[in-house]
Design brief:
Radius of gyration: 15 Å
Structural class: mainly beta
Number of domains: 1
Helix content: under 10%
Shape: elongated
Length: about 80
């Protein structure tokens, strides 16, 4: 007997906007994000966390108190 699966898997994109630069993220937690893209170190800064699910985006203003020392790695935010 063959059963049909009606599972749903949303399209999710996670990004971090710093000025005019967008860095892709692999993980967003309650107090940190994991930067997937390689980048030069960035000092403490304001940023925008962009979470997109099925083409609908939510943007959150955050602060990176330690900046991004090197990527990819976990980065704390508040």
């Amino acid at each position: 007997m063959i059963t049909q699966s009606r599972r749903y898997s949303p399209n999710v994109a996670l990004g971090l906007l710093i000025g005019n630069r967008r860095l892709e993220l692999s993980h967003v937690g309650p107090k940190d994000v994991t930067v997937r893209d390689r980048c030069e170190p960035i000092g403490p800064t304001d940023a925008e966390l962009v979470i997109t699910v099925d083409d609908e985006s939510e943007t959150y203003n955050i602060f990176l108190p330690n900046g991004i020392p090197a990527a990819p790695q976990k980065v704390a935010y508040i």
